[in-house]
Amino acid sequence: MTNPLKKEIDDFLNKIALYESLHYQTKVHLSNTIKQIEKKNESNSGIEPFIGTKLIIGDLTGKSANGWKLNYPTEFQIEIKGQEEMIKSIDTLISQNGMTFLANCYEILESFLFNIIGEFLNVYPTYQKHLKVKKELLTDQKEFLRKYYRSKNNTALLKLLREISPNYKESENLNNTDINLNDWYYVITNVRHSIVHSLHLLDTKKLNFSKNQMFIYKTFFSHEEIQGSWKLIMTYEETKKQINLIAEFGFMIFKSLSNEQNEDWKILHNLK
C-alpha cells in the first residue's frame, strides 16, 4: 500500500528541485557571460563594457498624449562601467538571485509543514487529540491548521509536530548535520525575512540569537557588518547548501511521520 503522505513529499521535493535548477542555471549562464566579457575585452583593447539604466515612470493622474501615457525620467540612474565592475555586478546578481530562490524555498517548506501535518491528521484522526485549540467542524485538517496554527516562526506548528511525532522530536537534535535543526529553522526564518523585507539586512540588536543560533548563522551565512546590521552576501555554494538542507529537512519530517505508522518512507532512489 502506498504511503498516504507520499503525494505531499513528492510535491514538496518537485518544487524545491525547480528552484535548485534555476539557481544552477543562473550560475552557469552568468558565469558564461563573464567569460564572454573577458574574451571580448582581450580582442577589443581599449573598449570598456558598459550597462546603464535609468528609472522612467509615468504620472498616473497626469496628462496623456491622445490617450498615450507620458513617461518622465527620474534622477535615479545606475551605470556599470568596465570589466571589473561588470564582473562584480554579475557576482552580486548570482548572489542575490540565489538568496531570492532560497526565500522561495523557505515559503515552500512552510506550506509543506501545514500540508503534511494536516494530511497526517486527516488520515490518522486519533492524533487530533494533540490539537490544543478549540476544534471547529472543519473536515480538512490542512485548513484547520492554517487557521489556528499560524505564528511567528511556526512555533506552534512545530510544537504540535513534536507532540505528534517523537521520531521528529528526537531527530531535531540527533541528525547527521551536527546542528540543532530547531535552531537552524529559527535562523533561516530570520534570514528569509531579511531577504524579502529588509534588503538582505539583519538587525543585530533585534535578532536575539542564542549562542548556538549565532554559530549557525556565522558558519553558514556569509555577511558583512554595516552600521549595526548584518548584510547577507551569500555565495552560490552557501545558498545551494541551504536549499538542499530545506529539502532534507522536509524529507526528515516525512520520514518521522511515516515511522509513527510504520509506513514505507524509503521513496528515494537506491535508498535501502
Largest sheet: 3 strands, antiparallel
Structural class: alpha+beta
Mean pLDDT: 90
Number of helical regions: 9
Strand order of the largest sheet: 5-7-6
Helix content: 55-70%
Strand content: 5-15%
SSE order: HEEEEHHHHHEHHEEH
Q: Rg to the nearest angstrom?
A: 24 Å
**Poorly predicted runs of 5 or more residues:** none
Q: Report, as a whole number of angstroms, the end-to-end distance.
A: 18 Å
DSSP E strands, number? 7
* Overall body shape: globular
Task: Give the helix/strand layout.
Layout: H1 6-43, E1 50-58, E2 64-65, E3 68-69, E4 71-81, H2 82-123, H3 141-148, H4 155-164, H5 166-173, H6 181-197, E5 201-203, H7 204-207, H8 211-220, E6 223-226, E7 229-232, H9 236-260
Antiparallel strand pairs: 1-4, 2-3, 5-7, 6-7
Main attributes?
272 residues, alpha+beta, three-stranded antiparallel β-sheet, 9 helices, globular
Walkthrough of the structure:
The chain is of the alpha+beta class. The protein is built from nine helices and seven strands; from the N terminus they run αββββαααααβααββα. The chain has a three-stranded antiparallel β-sheet with strand order 5-7-6. Strands 1-4 form a two-stranded antiparallel sheet. It is globular.
